Amino acid sequence: MLRHGSISTEVESKPFYFTLAALICCLAAAVLIFCLGGGGALAIAAGVMLSVVALAAAATLFAMVTDYACIDNGMLTMRYLFRRKQVPLTEIGKITCKDNVYSVFGKKDELLGTINGLLSGIDEILYELDKNGVRFE
C-alpha cells in the first residue's frame, strides 16, 4: 500500500485502516455529541476528549503516510514528515541498526538520515543496499 517506487518501503494496511477508522469514528462521535448532547458539562468534556483523540489519530495517519524509504536510479530517498533526504548509493559509508531504526552514515561518518526498520519492504531496501556494497555494522 502506498509504494513510492519499485524498491520501496510502505505502510502496512491493517494499522493504516485501523487509524483511519479511529479518526472517522472519533470525528463522527464528537459531532454527534456536540450536536445532540444538550450542552451539558459531561457532553462537552466527552466531545473535547474525542476531538483530542481524533487529532492524535490524524497526526499518526499523517506520520504513517509520510514515513518511507525508496531506491530509484541509484539514489536512496529517506522521508519522514517534512524532512526528505536523497543520497547516491555510492556516498553511503555504513548503516547501523539500533531499536529498529537504521541510521545511514556518509563516507565521513556524518548522519545522512534514518529508515524505520518496522516498515513493510525494508528487507528489499537492505538487500539492494547490500548488493551495492554498503557496509552494515
Write up what this structure looks like:
With 137 residues, the chain is α+β, with helices and mostly antiparallel strands. Helices cover 44% and strands 29% of the residues. The protein has three helices and eight strands. The chain has helices at residues 13-36, 41-66, 122-131; strands at residues 7-8, 68-72, 75-80, 83-88, 92-98, 101-106, 111-116, 135-136. The strands form two sheets. It has a four-stranded antiparallel β-sheet. β2 (68-72) and β3 (75-80) form a beta hairpin. α1 runs antiparallel to α2. The longest helix has 26 residues, at 41-66. The protein is elongated. The relative contact order is 0.16.
Strand content: 25-35%
Global mean pLDDT: 88
Gyration radius, rounded? 20 Å
Largest sheet: 4 strands, antiparallel
Structural class: alpha+beta
Helix content range of the residues, please?
40-55%
What is the tally of helical segments?
Answer: 3
Q: How many individual β-strands?
A: 8
For the termini, the CA-CA separation is: 30 Å
Strand order of the largest sheet: 1-2-3-4
SSE string: EHHEEEEEEHE
Low-confidence stretches: none
Specify the overall morphology: elongated
Protein topology:
Elements: E1 7-8, H1 13-36, H2 41-66, E2 68-72, E3 75-80, E4 83-88, E5 92-98, E6 101-106, E7 111-116, H3 122-131, E8 135-136
Parallel strand pairs: 5-8
Antiparallel strand pairs: 1-2, 2-3, 3-4, 5-6, 6-7
